[in-house]
Amino acid sequence: MILKNPVKNFDFANFLSKMTAYFGDIGQFEQKIQQLAQVIGLDLSKYPIDHLAVRMNNVETAQQWRDFLLVDNSLLKESEVNGRPISLIKLVEPLIFCGQKVSIIELPFPKDKVYLEEGWEHIEIVIPFMENESVEQWGKRIELQFGLPQNTQICYKISQPKVLGERLPNPSIAITLKDATNRNNCCLKVHPYDITTIVCSENNF
């Protein structure tokens, strides 16, 4: 479901100030993501950053953050994944992150995991399937391209979340630093499709 919410005279500076109060300094988050990308030899300028994501430890905080984001922005999609809702919120004006314009923030409601830090948590980049490439072949290609199995500084996990209505395969590779140097608990995720393509593929779109 798409909810359109046109905004006139949007005060972007005020939005950024409030966003920092809720989620933390986006500049520090950017530095941590760049550090992680450097460890695996990934040039962020070569791949589209699809969206940014936040994390929190209780439902009250999630609802407060969701309400804040929806004051001036719009709900692109809300789905239930593994027993909890995940909201995708499209910003009326994009953020600049690692030199790219990013217009979507992912806000998953908490489940049972407790995060050391609430706020900005991961980004997702897009590395598309090659022609006739299977999910397994795509995963192996990403592993080899960035030398993930041999990199002793990182942990990574390959998964394929199942979301009701999604028609395209949407595997994910989540990469984190094994030793959270400089308190870097952030995550970089790789997908073959951007979220807008996934949403447009759904039966009920």
Automatic annotation (TrEMBL):
Gene3D superfamilies on file: 2,3-Dihydroxybiphenyl 1,2-Dioxygenase, domain 1 (3.10.180.10)
GO cellular component annotations of the record: cytosol
Taxonomic superkingdom: Bacteria
Pfam family for this entry, one: YecM
The protein, known as: VOC family protein
Upper taxonomic lineage: Bacteria, Pseudomonadati, Pseudomonadota, Gammaproteobacteria, Pasteurellales
